[in-house]
Amino acid sequence: MEEWKPNPPVKPHKKRSWYLAWKYKLMNQRALRKLCQTGAVLFLLVTVIVNIKLILDTRRAAYEEEEESAQDYDDEMLNVEVPRHPVNNKKVLDVEVYSSRSKVYVAVDGTTVLEDEAREQGRGIHVIVLNQATGHVMAKRVFDTYSPHEDEAMVLFLNMVARGRILIFTIKDEGSFHLKETAKNVLKSLGSQVAPFLSWRDMWTFVGKKGGEVYGEKHAKSPALSTWGDPVLLKTEVHLTSVEDAECHWPDTELNRRRKRFCSKVEGYGSVCSCKDPTPIEFNPDPLKDNKVFDVPVAVIAGNRPNYLYRMLRSLLSAQGVNPQMITVFIDGYYEEPMDVVELFGLSGIQHTPISIKNARVSQHYKASLTATFNLFPDAKFAVVLEEDLDISVDFFSFLSQSIHLLEEDESLYCISAWNDQGYEHTAEDPSLLYRVETMPGLGWVLRKSLYKDELEPKWPTPEKLWDWDMWMRMPEQRKGRECIIPDISRSYHFGIVGLNMNGYFHEAYFKKHKFNTVPNVQLKNVESLRKDNYETEIHRLLGEAEVLDHSKNPCEDSFVPDTEGRVYVMFIRMEQEADFTTWTQLAKCLHIWDLDVRGNHKGLWRLFRKKNHFLVVGVPASPYSPLTCRSKKPSSVTPIYMEPPAKEEGAVAVPAVAAAEQT
Amino acid sequence: MQKINRNVVLALLSLTSLVFLLFQLCYYKFYLSQKNGASFSKVRGSQSGQDSTRWHVVRKFLGLISSHNIPVYLIDPLILGLVDKDIEQIRSSPDGPSPECKYFCAPRDFTTFALLDKTWKHDVGLFRTAEKMGFQWLKIINKDPRLDGMDDLSGMEIPLHYIFKLASHAIHLVVFYERSGNFLWHGPLRLRQHMDRKFVPFRKLHFGRYPGAYEKPELLLVSIDDLKVQIPKNPSSFLEEMSHSRFLECRYREARAFFQLYPDDASVDAVEFRKKAKSLLHLAALTLNNLGVKFWLSSGTCLGWYRQCNVIPHSKDVDLGIFIRDYKADIIPAFQKAGLPLKHKFGKLEDSLELSFQGEDDVKLDIFFFYEEDDHIWNGGTQAKSGKKFKYLFPKFTLCWTEFVELKVHVPCETLQYVEANYGPEWKVPVKTWDWKSSPSNVQDNGVWPIDEWDNVIQIY
C-alpha cells in the first residue's frame, strides 16, 4: 500500500534531475542534493518492483500448491475416517438377560447383542462371551441341550474360553433334557447355584466371570410337565477390568501382535489364545523339492463358519510346499470373524456381498472368487480351489506338483481333484495310485485358467438360476466328455457337519469313514500312464491280469473276495447302456460307498480296493471293457450280476435332496 | 523550509521502504527455501554436503531393502537419463569402483525405485528397521483395481506407493502389480485427508500423477557410484515408455450402471461372438505389436470398452485405429500370415486408407487409418458400389493404455470426446441398427473417387 506514496511528489523532478546531474555535477550544491533525491526515488522504485514481484510469486506458488493438493493428489473418495470406537471410559456394564419359552435376548449397555424369537429355532442354552476389559462380544453360541451330545460341545466350548471372560447364559424353550452331569458340574464350577438342579422347561439366566465372581442368576421353575417356567429377566452390572489384565503377555513379535489382535476380539479357538505356551500360528512346513505348484494361486471359498476356516487354514498352512502368499480366502458376506481368522494367519481375505439365495448364492460366490483369483494372479495357468470345511493332506501340494503337468498337456482332462468319491476306509489302499474318472469330485481341485476363462465364466449360471455350481460343472454341456484325475486315497477330508446341504446324519453316513492320506512325500506311481491313451493300455493290462471272481456268490458278502492281499480281481455287472447304473447303485449301497449318484466311473469301469486287493467292476455290455469287446479271459460261464433295486421310496427320495451334498 | 521538509519526507520514506524491502527479502527467501527445500539451499553453497547426503540416503535405503531381501530396481528418470549416456561403459564394467559420485549425487529431491508386488511378502519388519535407521515413511494405499471390475468384492486395500524420508532426501518406492494382459501397473498417488501434505513436495514426484502401464522390464545388475543396483536393461527405452505410460482404468461403476439399465446379452450367440472378438483382438494386437505399429481401440470396440468394459455383442466386428504416419507396408502380409486374409482395402496411403481383414466366422477386423490436421484428426470411409467418400472428424487426442479383455491396449485418453464425436451425445443408449454412412454424428460427405482410381482405391477380395 505504501508504494504509491513516494512517487507523486518526486515525479516531476525526475527527468530534470537526471539532466541536471549530468550538467551541473559538483558545480552546484543543489545539484548534489538533487542527485541524492534521485537516488532515493530510484531506490523506492526498486522497492515497488520487488514488492510487486513478491506478490505475484507468492500468489503463483500458493496457487500451484493449492492445485497440487486439490486436484492431482487428493483421493477422490473422501475417506473420512471417523474413530471407530468412541472412547469409553465407563467401568461398569449394564447387562440385561431374558429367558423365556419363545424369546431370548441379551442387552449390554442398552445394545442388543442377542435377540432370538424365531419359532422352531434357537432352542437350548445360548452362551455369549464378553471381553472383560472392553465389553465387546467375543463369541455367541447356542447349544441345543434338549438334543443329545450338544452338552458335550458346550463343555468343550466353555473349556476353551479364557479365564476372566464374562459369560452370559440364557435358555430358550428347553435346555435341560440332555444336559448331563458333566455339563451341570462345569456350570456349577462357574458359580451357578441353579445349574445342578435345572430341569424340564425351566427358564434360567446367568452372568458370571470365568474363574471369578458371579454377577447374577435368575431361575423360574416349570410348574408342570406341559408348561414352561415364567419368563425371567435378569438385570445386573459387570465391572470392567483394565486392558492389561485382560491380555496375555506374549513376547512382542509380529506374530504375537497378530495373535493379540485376534484373541482380544474372538473366543472359542482354544490354545491359540492361551497365555502360557499358545499353539503356533506359523507352521513353516518343509518346502517341496522342485515344487511345480508353488506359483499356483489357492482360492479358499468360505462362508460364515470361522471355526471350520480356522481348522482348514491350519491344515493348509501345514501342508508341505504351501506358499502362503498365493492363498486368498474369499468370504461370502461381510462377516467379521472369518476375516479375523484370515488375518490371524497373515493371509489375504476378500469379502463378497452375497448375491441371490441358497445354491445360487454359493454359485455366484464361486464365480466371483474364481474370477478374482485369475485377476489377482494374471500369470497363473491354474488355480487350486478349496473349501473351508476341508482338511488338507500333508502331501497335497506334492500330489499336485507331480500331476499338474498332465492337466497342462492332456486336453482330455477336466480337472485334478484331491478327492476320491469312492475312497473310504475299506475301499482305498494305495496312496501312490491315481485314477481317471468321468465325474468331477470337487473338494480340493485344480482348475485350468483357459477352461474357466474360455468356457465356464462366460456361461456361468446367472443368479436367478438356483443351481449348484458343481452339478452344473458336471453337466455334459460343460464337461464335454473330459475326465478328472483323482488319487485312490483322498488328499482332502471333508469334516463339515453344518452346511447348506449337510447335516450330522448325512456326514456320518457318507463322509466320516472317508480315507485321508497322512503319509508325507508320497511318490506317485506311473503318472504318465494317466494320459488318455496310456490309461487305456494300463486298464487293458490290469484286466488282462485280473482274476475273475466267483459270480455265483453274493457280491455284497465279504466272502465274495478271497482273503488275499495285493491281487487284482474283476467282477461283471449288468449295464445295458451307458446310463444304466441300476446294478452299480445297488452294489455301491451294499458296499457302503457313495451311492447317491454315480461317481468314479471311467467308461463303465470302477476301480476300488476290497480287502487290500484291487477290485475292478465292469458294466457289461455297455462298457468297452466288456469281455466280448476286449477279449479278456472271461470264462463263458460267467453271467454279469444283476441286482434289483429295492422298493422305490428310500433311494429315490434321498437322491434329489442330497445330490450335491458335499459341496457346502 | 519547504525544501528541508521535502528532504525529511523523502529520507523518512526511503528509510521505511528500506526496512520494508529488507523484510520482504527475508520473507521471500524464507518462503522459497521452505518450498524448495534442498535444491534452494544448495545454491547457498553447501553443494558437496547435499550431494553426499543423497548418495548416503540411497545407500542406506539399498542396505535396508537388501537386508529384507526385497528386490527393487531403479526407475528414477533423472538418474536413468544420466546412466543412459554412459550405459556402454557401465555395462562393460559392472564392478569397477567409480572415481566420482556422478549419478546418485545429481541434484534432485527424490530417488525413485520400483518394487514388484509379488516379489515381497509385505513384511512389517521392513518398516520397523527403517524407523530404526532414521527413515520416516509414508504408505499410500488404495483399492485394488484388479478387483474393481468385479461386482461387490471388497478386498483389502493394497499399497501403491511408499515414501522413505531421511534428512533432506526422500526415496519414492513405486509398487508395481501384474495385471491381466501381461503387463505391470502402478497406481496413482492420492493423499487421504488425514495425511501429511507437506511430508515431501508430492508435486515433484515423477510417478503417481496418473496410474501407469509398463511392460515387464528386463533387469540388469550394475554398480554405479559404488552402489549395486538393478536398473532396466535398456534405460532409454524405459524412459521412452515412461513418457507414454498413462493408464486409464475402465469405468467399471458406470458399466455396472449401464448393465442395470440394459441387461447384458447372455445368449449363446453373444457368448460366442465375444469369445471370437476377444481372440481376434488378441491376434491383431500380437501382429501389430510385433510390427511395432501403435494402434488403439476405435469405433464400436472403443465404445464397448468405455460404456460397458466389454465387447458389444451385437457389434459384429472389431475396430482399430492407426495413425497414418505409423503405416507400414508389412501390415497386410503380416495379417495374412497370421491367418487373417484381406477382405477389402479402401483408399490409399495419402487419403482415406481403410483395411478390413476376415477373421474366423464372419467376425471382421477393421483398421482405420487416421490423418492429423492442425485442429482435428479424421479418418475416411468409402462406399464400394458408388465410390462415394466419407470423412469422420474427431477432436485431437492422445493415447493412453488400458486393460481390455485381458489385453493391454491403447485408447484415446480423451475417450469421452472421441466417443461423443463418433456416436453423439446419446452414446449411452445401445443402438442395434447402425449405418456407417449416416449414423455417426461426425460423418461428412467427402466427394467421390475418380473412376480411373477405382481399381486402386476400392479393392474387394
Question: Could you explain how this protein is built, in words?
Answer:
The complex is a heterodimer of chains A (664) and B (461). Chain A has an 8-stranded mixed β-sheet with strand order 12-11-10-13-17-15-18-16, sandwiched between helices. A 5-stranded antiparallel β-sheet of chain A has the order 5-4-6-7-8, covered by helices on one side. Chain A has a 5-stranded mixed β-sheet with strand order 20-21-24-23-22, with helices on both faces. Chain A is built from 18 helices and 24 strands. Chain A is an alpha+beta fold and 664 residues long. Residues 1-12, 65-71, 77-87 and 649-664 of chain A have low confidence and may be disordered. Chain B is an alpha+beta fold. Chain B folds into 2 domains: 48-245, no CATH class; 252-460, no CATH class. In chain B, strands 11, 12, 13, 14, 15, 16, 17, 20 and 21 form a 9-stranded mixed β-sheet that branches. In chain B, strands 1, 2, 3, 5, 6, 7 and 8 form a 7-stranded mixed β-sheet that branches. Chain B has a two-stranded antiparallel sheet with strand order 9-10. In chain B, β13 and β14 (351-358) form a beta hairpin. Residues 35-47 of chain B have low confidence and may be disordered. The interface between A and B is large, with 57 and 56 residues. β12 (348-352) of chain A pairs antiparallel with β4 of chain B.
